[in-house]
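Exercise 7. Given the encoded structure of a 149-residue chain, write a plausible sequence.
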């Protein structure tokens, strides 16, 4: 499971011109699910996202996590995180999970993040979405559940 995590002052998602989700301070999480991913990957990544110390403390150091600042997470499914661009000019998505598996694990990740104590908003699975954000920092990280050790 892969995630692009961006610290935001605010973020939102629209579908067909209608806003479907919005958060204030927190994290925008673009989440990709791979063919080999399991429930354990979702649980691991949710705990990692909730506890990443990427918010500033009183001295300006990145010492506080999402839970400590009371921020929210906007989680947007993004299969293109599994795009392989090594050959040719068109990405291959063969490593991305099929839609049924991807949706189940996407929802599992969101539930696990919520169980950590994070207020979670979501995009619309498999929809063509417009994602807006005010990146705070900018702070942007790449996470991969298969690279835990």
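Solution.
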């Amino acid at each position: 499971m892969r995630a692009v995590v961006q610290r935001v002052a605010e973020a939102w998602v629209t579908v067909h011109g209608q806003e479907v989700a919005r958060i204030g301070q927190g994290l925008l999480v673009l989440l990709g699910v791979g063919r080999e991913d399991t429930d354990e990957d979702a649980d691991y990544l949710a705990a990692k996202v909730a506890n990443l110390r990427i918010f500033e403390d009183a001295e300006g150091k990145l010492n506080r996590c999402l839970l400590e600042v009371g921020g929210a997470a906007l989680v947007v499914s993004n299969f293109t995180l599994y795009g392989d661009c090594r050959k040719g000019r068109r990405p291959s998505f063969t490593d991305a999970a099929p839609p049924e598996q991807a949706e189940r694990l996407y929802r599992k990740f969101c539930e696990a993040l919520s169980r950590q104590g994070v207020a979670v908003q979501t995009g619309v699975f498999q929809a063509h979405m417009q994602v807006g954000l005010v990146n705070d920092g900018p702070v942007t990280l790449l996470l991969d559940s298969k690279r835990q050790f």
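Remark. Helices lie at 39-51, 66-69, 99-115. Students should compare their own answers with the one above.
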